[in-house]
Amino acid sequence: MKKILILLSLITLFVPCKLFAQNSRFSGWVGVFHTQKFSPKWGASFDAQFRSANHYDYLQNVLLRPSVNYYFGNKMAALGYAYIATNNHLDNGTETFRPESRIWEQLIINTKIGRVSTLQHRFRLEQRFLGNTTSKNDNYFAQRLRYFARAVVPLKKTDAFSKGAFVGLQNEVFANVQNSNKVNKHFFDQNRAYVALGYRLHKKADVEFGYLNQFVQQATGTYFNHVLQAAVYTRF
Questions:
Q1: Which N-terminal stretch is annotated as signal sequence (predicted)?
Q2: What's 216's domain CATH number?
Q3: Confidence band for 147, pLDDT divided at 50, 70 and 90
Q4: Burial degree of 114 (CB within 10 A; 0-12, 13-18, 19+)
Q5: CB 175 within 8 A of CB 144
């Protein structure tokens, strides 16, 4: 429990103090994350995510993200593609659609915490190709850097964590490194802090449900998105 409190404290250092500021949104995210190893060195990953609009009004985002992975030591390098469909309903009733394609590269480093817990560090660089179905002049290219840290901490002491309840803790910081004037006119893009209660069904599958606090920097202000998230993780 002491480890959990320490990790939670480190993560919440990134979370802005006014969690329920006046400009707040509330949404739900569902995700499925799968990793498949073909050999000791090679594998693939895929995740699909579905995210609601504010107050769960409609499906706002669909994200599909495959990758090819290369394993070496306690590290993994990956090259991937992502497609993100974004739907919006404006106040005047107009519906908009923005498709986005990404090419991305990442490096994951896993470090041990105690006997069974692992702290995962993930560095990802994204090349973003954003389009707009209503205006051809609004298409643009941008690059974004992301740093992600995640730990899974079993609730019971064990020498080999293959089944049981756990706490999942993670934080991710986003920074615009090219064409920030097109995105939100800021180097800092957003921060996502997350805490979840999960259950490891066996060593190859986890389910979890948690709360994610998303702090977003826009061109003219900021907002907090309070997200209830359900996720399934599988590893083969």
A1: 1-21
A2: 2.40.160
A3: very high
A4: exposed
A5: yes
